[in-house]
Amino acid sequence: LRSGAPPRSQSHCLSVAGLPGSARRRPADPCGPQGVPRPSEIAPTLATMDARLRELEEENARLRAAAAARDGIAGSIADLVGRTPLLRVSSPPGAAELVAKLEFLNPGGSVKDRAALEIVLDAERRGKLVRGSSILVDATSGNTGVALAMVAAARGYGCVVAMPRLGPNMERYALIRAYGGVVLLSEPGEGSEGMLR
Asked: Is residue 112 flagged as an active site residue?
């Protein structure tokens, strides 16, 4: 230590208590040259903790869904996706019964809510997303971008949507931005390639 420098604070040191293998046999001072475990030694512990965190998040989602089913109050806007009502459509006598599923009553306004939510949940299950740092990116003409921005807001991700610059899309631009998403506009004549650029 330099003269007059404060002693090392143990709060800034990495504790190796409970780590597997040789990490448990390191000297007591975790700030010493032998006290910091190699990444390969703590990787299994971190992987186990990450898997457990995902399990807890899934359990939390199940509990929220059960509570919503019990008291009718959803814990997240994503919990409402797919809970669209059925409507019996009048048909002539003797014809088959016709029932319509009102997908426009999904919280994002279209059936694309289902696809966006399942894509994100699947990526979470596979450990591909990190809340607070991952950004969802999509090139779309409208409804999928709205759905993805909504799901991203509900699940804690950023969202960037590339869309063509079209007058009818103004409402969709506003919805995506309202969910915290970023809209990148391409020229209509460029088609899909313009959105992907």
From this structure: yes
Please identify which of the residues 79, 110, 112, 144 carries the catalytic annotation. 112
CA–CA separation, 144 and 150 (whole Å): 10
Alpha helices for 37-190 (secondary structure H): 39-71, 112-125, 143-155, 170-178
How large is the angle between the packed helices 143-155 and 112-125, nearest 10 degrees? 40
Distance from C-alpha of 74 to C-alpha of 67, rounded to nearest angstrom: 8
**Half-sphere exposure (Cβ direction) of 93: Cα atoms closer than 13 Å:** 0
Strand, helix or coil for residue 49: helix
The residues facing 93 across adjacent strands are none
> Does residue 129 have a pLDDT over 70?
yes
Tell me the C-alpha distance between 134 and 59, whole Å: 22
SS3 133: coil
Tokens read off for 162? 């590339």
Q: How confident is the model at residue 69 (pLDDT cuts 50, 70, 90)?
A: low
Q: What pTM value is reported for the model?
A: 0.61
**Which residues, 6 or more positions from 70, have their beta carbon under 8 angstroms from its beta carbon?**
none
